[in-house]
Design a protein that fits this description.
Chain lengths: ~325, ~500
Amino acid sequence: MSKEPDLSTRKGRSVPELAALGVVLVVMIVFFSVTSEFFLQADNLLNVLTAISVTGVLAIPGTMLLVSGQVDLSVGSGAAFAGVTFAVVSASHGIAVGVLAAVLVGFAAGAVNGFLVTVVGINSLITTLGTLAVLRGGARLLTDGQTASVSGFSWLGTARPFLNIPLPVIIFVVLAIAAGLVMRYTVFGRSLYAIGANPVAARLVGIRIGLILFVTFVLSGLAMSLGGLILTSQLSAASTNAGLGLELTVITAIVLGGASLSGGRGSIMGTVVGLLIIGVMNNGLVLLNVNSFWQDVARGVLLILAVSFDQLRQRINAKQG
Amino acid sequence: MSHIDDEPVLSATGIRKSFGGVEVLHGVDLHLRPGEVLALLGENGAGKSTLVKILAGSYRPDGGEIRIDGELQGTLDPIIAKKAGIAMIFQEIADAPDLSVAENLALGDWPMRRGAIDWKAMRLSARETLDMLGGTDIDVEASMRTLSIGQRQLLEIGRNISVDARILVLDEPTAALSSAEVDRLFDTIARLKAAGVAMIYITHRLDEVTRIGDRVEVLRDGYLTLNEPVAAVDRRTMVSAMIGRETGDVLRPADQPDFGEVAIEATGLSSGSAFSDVSLNCREGEVLALYGKIGSGTAETAEALFGLRRLSAGHVTIDGEASKATNPVRAVRAGLGYLPADRKREGILGARSVAENLSAPSWPLMGRWGRVHASREWAAFSRWRTDLNIRSTNNPGQLIPALSGGNQQKVLLARWFERKSRVLLLVEPTRGVDVGARAEIYQILREKARTNNSAVIVATSDGEEVVQVADRVLVMDRGRITAELAGDDITPASLALAVGN
């Protein structure tokens, strides 16, 4: 009838998938609400959000990377490195210089990853597996493996400036909204999807692949700085073991949220739902007094399930195409 | 040739097949005699693949009967079909690139001796197979990686034929071959034919039908529309059986139109061993063809103009100014548009929507401060969908793989129309596009060159394409321009002559 395009389906198949994911989340929430009287309390729900905020800060550029067919495994150790750098520098030069140092370190880590992937041309999985080890080792070298305590820097991780909501949660939400808008409404965002869908074709339509991927790796590096600073602030100490295995949680959340490992698909909204599923699961298991080692098992199973769904979807799409 | 009078080795009558309630084969017959090459012709979606998959036992027919050597086959499955000697060669080559030629030929059926692989026997039998097929120049110990596509295809045939195949099905085997490789493949087909192997040759290239076919069957929308000895039909009859109307007309207007200014001019271009001393110009409104075999330098010249290939000598101007197109980003800005030959690997953004595929080069122009207005993207899609008759739903979010090859190609052309590119560089623009859509694309190119005032350069190895679409053609051979033809001088005969010299 009307010539206007049908808006309800313009995101293609991602809408029903996101809905299915929402159903999973709601089922989990209902289950834990019934089994634990503490789950639905406001304080506990804020705990869930706080627990996923650092993971979330890293998963935002992580989603951008996976959409463009890249992956950054170095985020967990990068966050630890940034945190330790802050602790060491701030001890002698004060908080402000410490923050600056942490930001520079994250920027540098991202720039090195970006350089190796876009200029040298190494596969991002291998590149960031390498920098994962380098950054973790570097963090331990800085403090000789010791945890460095920090004082006077708890506001970033624990302040509640608005409606009693912790600052890390506010930072995460603001960044997620900004990134969601960038992904959907800018040349940069669209180019990420195009590169992920077909890098050769993207190059031939005049997209600056190298520049865009480099910038995205740098964003991932800056997220390491932010994540590391929040973690350090929350604990009032920088541990060299901070963020251990965080990259797995990040990737689980992103893939769970519908991003394809083969690139070209995914969204910030999906990643947020993926993060919530992981956060609710971890929190619920703690409330039910399940041994914390089971959380690792559950997270691993979730990752495998998410990737299996991705495979299944690709096979179905291949049949339809 | 005497085999052809024998009883059919394979005989299918009244084959019917439906998918999801839609009948795609409406009672089709196919008879194949020993040593006969049956050309199976039809547009994409006409039912060719479904029919041969039924013959190979991959699909079960809903109706009709299949006889092999006169014997009725109740339930044909892939294993029975293989035992009966039916072998299929698909377009996509599935070999093990890191193994040797001999290992690939014996794949899965290695000769054993005292519990170990008998390498000597394996090499000997590989040599035998290759010599039989005319692949005497292929080293059986060479790694698969070092072989050309044509040689790999020969091996694919060798691998399937070695299990006593009597019926060989070839699905568009020449799609990716150079003309020397095509000659070799046809030589192999002749050898197999002499050995009594019957072949079903699926294609949509008419010149191949007349070159190697004994008989031609044409399918259209699941009906058999033509079944004649090749010698008894002309091309026009085959085409009209294929698409149900006459086509293939020369689209160039009878009187030479006045073209505009020179939009792109190249002088003395050379690039390594790919091509040398190529000079050309193309005016606004003009369609210029670069015609030559694959590897003759036509596609390479287009690549160089788009900044994908470094020039070792020469000079390019666009609208009289030195071209800044040293890479694709700068080329697009300089007003160039490029359509690659391999649509799936280099053209489409697979997981993305038709609207995004169409708008990608124009995103920087669809809003300020790096913003893209989705409404403009949709509007662009709606406009070109109507203008170019792109057959898809009116949903700009539809994923591009859902469209047929011809319609995908229209979207990729619209990319550059939307970008208002001054010069279009199109490499093999109708490869893998069926005849109906092909004629439409030629029409679009001619019309848009004129109305958009743009220069269109078509690099192609398809002579029929040149005759139908080009105002002027530069014939290339081994990296050099060898002839130039214009207007009514462009005929299949004159092109063949120009290439022959």
